[in-house]
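F.,

This is the one I mentioned.
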């Protein structure tokens, strides 16, 4: 949050409900956001994940 200079409310978090779901974290979050009507045309999403072996990856996509 600090590195991106963004408000915490801009981040979708579900770890308290599901724990660490590894490779399924981003698809689960996107599904929950869609079901909760949180995704809007024109939004830009940044998806960042961290995995085993200290690997990480990310992407940005428009809805």
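My design for it:
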């Amino acid at each position: 949050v600090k590195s991106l200079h963004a408000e915490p409310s801009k981040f979708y978090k579900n770890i308290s409900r599901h724990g660490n779901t590894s490779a399924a974290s981003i698809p689960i979050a996107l599904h929950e956001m869609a079901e909760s009507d949180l995704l809007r045309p024109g939004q830009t999403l940044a998806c960042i994940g961290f995995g085993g072996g200290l690997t990480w990856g990310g992407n940005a996509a428009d809805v």
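The chain is about 25% helix and 25% strand.

Talk soon.
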